[in-house]
From TrEMBL:
Function: Catalyzes the transfer of a formyl group from 10-formyltetrahydrofolate to 5-phospho-ribosyl-glycinamide (GAR), producing 5-phospho-ribosyl-N-formylglycinamide (FGAR) and tetrahydrofolate.
Gene this chain is encoded by: purN
The keyword Transferase appears for this protein: yes
Protein name in the entry: Phosphoribosylglycinamide formyltransferase
Chain ranges of the Formyl transferase N-terminal domain: 5-182
Catalytic center residues: 109
Binding site for N(1)-(5-phospho-beta-D-ribosyl)glycinamide: 14-16
């Protein structure tokens, strides 16, 4: 059987994409990246996958937002992905795109959702005086950053932190989180139904936490074979 197929959407430097590539190369993730797609033709992330199908287009060269989304969706669909992952994809996906890939469309977001949907999450956590910050991997739904959260990782906020120092502390934890969730997804253990994330067919009522060693802590009943 061929490895599960992952399409990755990126806009920037691509460190999360790199984490997925590294995990596949090192044998920690049984999957293949079948395409990398971007709204930024010059995104550094695209340079990380020279031998892979790459698609990028400047959204401003399309007559409308929905035209760009449709072209992106067709390109993603052509790569026949089992899972579509937004890994630092910074453009809001329209409803038609989301509905086309719904249930197999994941995003990593740098906050402990439902806190801080949208942009500037590190700044907002600092401004709020939060002692704890983190990232979430969630299913994508039409409403921005509002889909069922599968798993989260946390980091402490330290005195004197800036948005940059906080994001630097979080980023390696994000990488572990994304790879761990993709592990469950590609093993066929993850689904979305009725606004909930399902693990092995059971609804998750709280996000799975990532432990300090980078492993997801699964609910007890799921530990037994
Ligand atoms: C990551 O921190 C990711 O969580 C965030 O962008 C960064 C991309 O880094 N995503 C969002 O803010 C989505 N709303 P990367 O390009 O190095 O993977």
């Amino acid at each position: 059987m061929s490895a599960p197929r992952i399409a990755v959407l990126v806009s920037g430097r691509g460190s999360n994409l790199q984490a997925i590539l590294d995990a596949i190369r090192q044998g920690g993730l049984q999957a293949q990246i079948v395409g990398v797609f971007s709204d930024k033709p010059h995104a550094a992330a695209l340079q990380r996958v020279a031998g892979t199908l790459r698609w990028a287009a400047d959204a401003r060269s399309f007559p409308s937002r929905s035209d760009f989304d449709a072209a992106l969706a067709d390109a993603v669909a052509a790569s026949q992905p089992d899972w579509v992952v937004c890994a630092g994809y910074m453009r809001i996906l329209g409803d038609a795109f989301v509905e086309r890939f719904r249930g197999r469309l994941l995003n990593i977001h740098p906050s402990l959702l439902p806190k801080y949907r949208g942009l500037h999450t590190h700044e907002r956590a600092l401004q709020a005086g939060d002692r704890k910050h983190g990232a979430s991997v969630h299913f994508v739904v039409p409403e921005l950053d509002a889909g069922a959260v599968v798993a989260q990782c946390t980091v402490p906020v330290e005195s004197g932190d800036t948005a940059q120092s906080l994001s630097q502390r979080l980023l390696p934890r994000e990488h572990g989180l994304l790879v761990a969730v993709l592990g469950l997804a590609t093993e066929g253990r993850l689904a979305e139904q009725g606004g909930f994330a399902l693990l092995d067919g059971q609804a998750l009522f709280t996000p799975l936490p990532l432990d300090s060693a980078g492993h997801l802590i699964l609910p007890d009943p799921l530990l037994s074979p």
